[in-house]
Specification:
Helices cover 20% and strands 35% of the residues. The protein contains five helices and 14 strands.
Length: 245
């Protein structure tokens, strides 16, 4: 593109010393959140943002809308070399295909990515989606995280979005073996102390979630296990703190 590159050292606040206008910048959600909190004056120097590498919280999406940032969330995987779709944050709920990409779904309702530019033309994923056509999809969650509780299929990622405003620290929902239900929904919160009033939290869960969507048990753990990229490792956390803790 013959673009002029501005290089900065890796940092949680990459705009800290920025003094010139930038047409395009790529960041993780954490970097953008920290930039909003600590270097807000520099935000106006950026024309377009590409956000990726980790899930986007509702709080950050609300901040992006409030500040009027032209920001896009990317969707991609190692196998496709780069992102294959983007979603305009605050303007659209659907990811839209880049040029040369189209989408279908399999019998599980999981996304299939069709490419023209790669030797392997088709990539099957474990992402549950809704595809109204071959150019758009609505991301719902991961099929390998779906919880079957008494015949009711629960998608943790969708329920977690509803709880972000209630819980001020990291958390996730998961399934735990249960003799009656097969799996029961549990809530795991990362906190060394019980920073939340459990009675208030349970009342909020009743207000925000339908009866079948409410966790049957709440656990507090000192710290989540993490992946190599710093994301919470749900399976390892459950194994260490819940099943064998």
């Amino acid at each position: 593109l013959k673009a002029k590159l501005t290089i900065v050292d890796p940092s949680s606040t990459p705009l800290e010393k920025l003094c010139c206008a930038i047409d395009f910048v790529a960041m993780t959600p954490m970097q953008l959140q920290m930039s909003i909190e600590k270097t807000q004056d520099q935000l106006a120097l950026i024309k377009t943002w590409l956000i990726g590498g980790a899930p986007l919280t509702k709080q950050l999406e609300d901040n992006i809308v409030r500040l009027g940032l032209e920001a896009y969330l990317s969707y991609g995987m190692t196998e496709t070399l780069t992102h294959v779709a983007v979603r305009r944050i605050g303007m659209d709920s659907f990811f839209r295909a880049l040029k040369g990409i189209r989408f279908t779904t399999d019998e599980r309702e999981c996304l299939i990515v069709h490419t023209q530019h790669l030797h392997q033309k088709l990539f099957k994923t474990n992402d549950l989606v809704y595809c109204p056509d071959d150019q758009r999809f609505l991301w719902r969650g991961r099929i390998d995280r779906v919880i079957n509780s008494g015949g009711i299929k629960l998608i943790p990622e969708l329920l977690e979005k509803q709880l972000e405003c209630l819980i001020p620290c990291r958390f996730f929902l998961a399934g735990m073996p249960d003799d009656l239900l097969g799996e029961k929904l549990i809530l795991v919160i990362e906190s060394k102390t019980e920073v939340l009033d459990l009675d208030v939290l349970r009342e909020d869960l009743v207000r925000y979630l339908e009866p079948y969507d409410r966790p049957r048990k709440i656990f507090f753990v000192d710290a989540f296990e993490q992946t190599a990229t710093g994301k919470p490792d749900r399976r390892a956390t459950l194994d260490k703190w819940i099943y064998h803790g």
